[in-house]
Amino acid sequence: MLLKPGARLRSIGGTVEIIVVRAAPADISITFNGQPMVAEADADLETRDATGEVPAGAVELGKRYADDELSLEVLCVKAGKGELAANGRVMTKKEARPLPASD
Amino acid sequence: MNLSMLLDMASDGFGDRVVVGHRRTAITASRLRSLSIGGAQIVRDARADAIVYADVNGPAFPVAMFSAARAGVPLVPLNYRLGSEKLAALAANHPNAVCIAAEQLTTVFENAHMQVWSAGDFMIAAEDRSTGTEPLEPTTEAAAVIIYTSGSTAEPKGVLLHHHHLVNYVLGAVEFGGAGEDEAFLVSVPPYHIAAVANVITNLFAGRRFIVLEQFTGQQWIDLVRSDAITNALVVPTMLARILATDGDKSVPTLRSLAYGGAAMPRMVVEEALATWPDVGFVNAYGLTETSSTISILGPDDHRAAIASTDPNVRSRLASVGRPVPNVELSIRDEAGTMVPPGEAGRIYVRGEQVSGEYTGTGSALDQHGFFDTRDEGYLDEDGFLFVLGRADDTIIRGGENIAPAEIEETLLLHPDIADAVVVGVPDAEWGQRLEAAVVPKPGRSADPDDIRAYVRTRLRGSKTPDRIVIWDELPRTETGKLVRRLALERLVKQYGTKGSQADQKGV
What we know:
The structure holds two protein chains of two kinds. Chain A is mainly β. Chain A has no helices and eleven strands.
């Protein structure tokens, strides 16, 4: 799907929710533990299926995940156990680069 | 990307952590969230389209901000020190608002047909409505905040900041939950200042408790830093000067970081502060309301490198505002809009997700490439440090030469007898404008205009030496330290007219 900065996506493979921070204008599919992440309005949580195999690792609240090749960056707003992938490739956690507190 | 998202995350991530208030009147992240749900219900019940906030800063301010965000209406902080006529004029722009007002202003807003609350009553009512209320699903259609500019150069303009501007600002500057549990931020700016709005959301997202000093004095600031074990603080230049001018012990052992901004900071004051608190990390932040606060930062390491350097270029960076933050593009352009090389002065333009540049009534002021003209003059040095010379509107044109008053003011402030200075252009039949200055002597000192003129003349060329220098007890400044040049000019013209000074006649 075409991702727009600010879009909120929910997982039907678990509890995770993300916000798109940056995205190239391209067709990108984000998955969590192999299940698609869908737009908030389309999220039918009744069909949520978290029974699949859960990869090691966690998607942590407040952390950013990126795929540089796709110019994609998302922010985790609800945490979950497992991993995020974009077009089948696992997304990497971005290291913090906080600025000095200016206000 | 509603601001409520930031609060939901804080509530999920560290809901039990105290994020607002003194240790004894503490509000945790999860309680702030439930208060915002109750506050949004107040807005919904009143069918209001805004929350107007006209009181001192306090715990009700973040509650009002997140109540407005959750209700999908803008928060409109107003300067409670404005006269009732000016407040009524601004209130008329928001006829369907719910208002949180200081007691003495109640009738002003009731006359504007608003539902008026005291800060305390609003908090109680929000608490009452916080349970059993279905949280509203926040929208992002309305602006998050409308801030009126201080009107130091013209009539106040309403700046619209949307949720995505502020959220992007926070995401670009702050690591979620990145603050230690012991960290506490002291805010001394009033709630109608962009820094107060930014303080609420950046500290919340970092998980850092913040408290406000409602009525600033230098001594109270020092006392509160000590009693509440403050680790971070923000002040405007006039406040820092007052803190340094207090008598007695100025030690602040818990303070790690002190940010300053909001107006030009005299270099002497920074150097004195660095010498007074050698263990504190200083942060100079430059930004505008229209840019969702900070766009350029001179950090602690930059300060230390500058003060320790013998290279005059590096040392002069104490007077800079550092380098642009990563998510903001900044360029300096000449009058034709062409980018100029380092070292050359021009107009400061910025672009980025946090940059709004939108005003109520007049719409967006961004150019076709998304750049915002700050109307500030400045230049970048070879290493990318930004020096701000002042507002373009303040530029004095004397006999065809463009003169930034800030440069002359800085020189005046280096004089050992001078505490404060302003330079303005007075209409002049021969030169178009001529330079006149008003200075305030340091306590216990007297200043002699002829001596000062000679002092300036040895450092700047004749065309930049004020034709007249007068001594005043104080300069017209806003509560947040901005010089109101318009009022200084009015007073000079009223006092001396627009005829030339004696100095002119002597041909000095």
